[in-house]
Amino acid sequence: MDSNIIIKLNNVNFYYGNNRALTDISMTFRKNKVTALIGPSGCGKSTLLRLLNRMNDLIDGTRVEGEILFEEKNIYDPEIDPVEIRKKVGMVFQKPNPFPKTIYNNIAYGPKLASNNTGDINTLVEQSLKQAVLWDEVKDILNQSAMKLSGGQQQRLCIARALAMKPDILLMDEPTSALDPISTAKIEELIEELKKNYTIIIVTHNMQQAARISDETAFFYLGNLVEYNKTEKIFTNPDVKHTEDYITGRFG
Amino acid sequence: MTRHIKEIIIKYVFFSFALVSIVVLGMIVFSLFREGVPIFKVVSLKDFLFGTEWYPTFDPPLFGIFTLIVGSLIVTIFATLLAVPLGVMTAIYISEIAPRAIKEILKSIIEMLAGLPSVVLGFFGMVVVAPWLQNTFDLPTGLNIVNASMILALMAVPTISSISEDALYAVPHEFKEASYALGATRFETIAKVIVPAALSGITTAVMLGMARAIGETMVVLMVAGGAAAIPESIFDSVRPMPASIAAEMGETPYRSAHYHALFATGMVLFFLTLAFNLIADYVSHKFKQTGSATP
């Protein structure tokens, strides 16, 4: 496998019961890049994202065919523990979802569970919050409930919480759709910054956002991967008419 | 008739129906106090609450209900100790772990348990549990604290489990996803995220379960043994307040001192259940908005 490639999907099909949500997807994600997954609602982009850290395991009656290679191993191999995958592949959700615990404990939650982490939790908390550009806003209120933060701060807290696990990949499922434009701008800046150290895969409904922050873009429609290329190419001169129609707002 | 007037009429119809239950409750409380308070002309509040001699038919009669209060509290506490782990674990199993089919079966069984008449449970305690206790531990009687606590626990489990279950269901799905996404196992998620987030609801459940146990009459009348004495071991008999009221009320002359004493015992019971309900209410409101932000 090419050393720039971090995840490789080979002929992946995914079913909810008898419904096929993803059809024969083969694609690769490159290391330290931001890849945007776009497409109309129900096209399977979030499903694909959730396949990459085995979050779909939590839904009854789902089934995966094909293989998803991460670090040369198929993450759907029966011998692989999904818990181990989720420690390496972090996730940020659509709605900010901090735990109803203190800010400090939100960050410390993951590292404290991971038994191999023996380092200094205080340092880790500070480091993670700094990475998520939240430290200056919360350093004096670490023992307050995270529920008291604003939506944008909560989402950055969730990013910090994911970063505290020192993941290789960060999955983001429409991370700014519940936020105001100012908070959105902050998160986008943050993503720019984070891609130096992390591979980021982001699902977004916001075309401008995909164009602004991603290096590569994949367009999905009805469970199929329609087009996947450099973001610049997708947004200026897509190969497929369908893609152009979608990004110019002619449908979807 | 204009629509506006109709709206007003409808509003007051509903209001008056809601008022009925409040008025009835008020009247019950009023009559409880009217019949109970006169006892304090015969005995002081302190002697009534803390006197350890309950001989209402002696001459002169002695009205000290301390032994009855102790009896009530002790069976309630032991019942709670048994019912809380049972009820909470059951709720966790039903809401978080059980496959759908087992979940449905278990839920209907627990609802059936809640629907069992207390006299049936009392019978079970008398006929099955009491002889077993008596033989196993070689006791003079199987009608004692242990027996009553076990049966009361059985009655409190459905209350505790169904209210805890609601509290666990109410924990947003997003919290669980967040926990799993950070590499937590199912049991870590249950122990560190779901249960703490549902803790106020679970505490409410426990309080209401205790209120249920302390007010329960038939079971303690049938299986607690009825001895108005401070127990020295968990195998001693006790006489909880509701049992005392139920057993003696039929034989007291109307508005005698004994009659008033029993009503006053009812007042004590009323205040105890009220306290449990107030605590439950306070706990459920206090943590409602912020979740349990434990440091």
Question: What does this protein structure show overall?
Answer:
The complex is a heterodimer of chains A (252) and B (295). Chain A contains 10 helices and 10 strands. With 252 residues, chain A is an alpha/beta fold. In chain A, the strands form 2 sheets. Chain A has a 6-stranded mixed sheet with strand order 6-7-8-3-9-10, with helices on both faces. A 4-stranded antiparallel sheet of chain A has the order 2-1-4-5, with no helix packed on it. Chain B is built from 12 helices and 2 strands. Helices cover 73% and strands 1% of the residues of chain B. With 295 residues, chain B is mostly helical. Chain B is globular. In chain B, strands 1-2 form a two-stranded antiparallel sheet. The N and C termini of chain B lie far apart (60 Å). Mean pLDDT of chain B is 91; it is low at 289-295. At the A-B interface, helix 2, helix 3 and helix 6 of A face helix 7 and helix 8 of B.
Ordered list of secondary-structure elements with their pairings:
The complex is a heterodimer of chains A (252) and B (295).
Chain A: E1 5-16, E2 19-30, E3 34-38, H1 45-51, E4 62-70, E5 73-74, H2 82-88, E6 89-92, H3 103-113, H4 121-131, H5 135-138, H6 151-163, E7 169-173, H7 181-194, E8 199-203, H8 207-213, E9 216-221, E10 224-230, H9 231-236, H10 241-247
Parallel strand pairs in A: 3-8, 3-9, 6-7, 7-8
Antiparallel strand pairs in A: 1-2, 1-4, 4-5, 9-10
Chain B: H1 3-36, H2 45-50, E1 54-55, E2 62-63, H3 66-97, H4 100-115, H5 118-137, H6 145-169, H7 173-181, H8 186-197, H9 199-215, H10 218-223, H11 241-249, H12 257-286
Antiparallel strand pairs in B: 1-2
Helix pairs in contact in B: 1-12, 3-6, 3-9, 4-6, 5-6, 6-9, 7-8, 9-12, 11-12
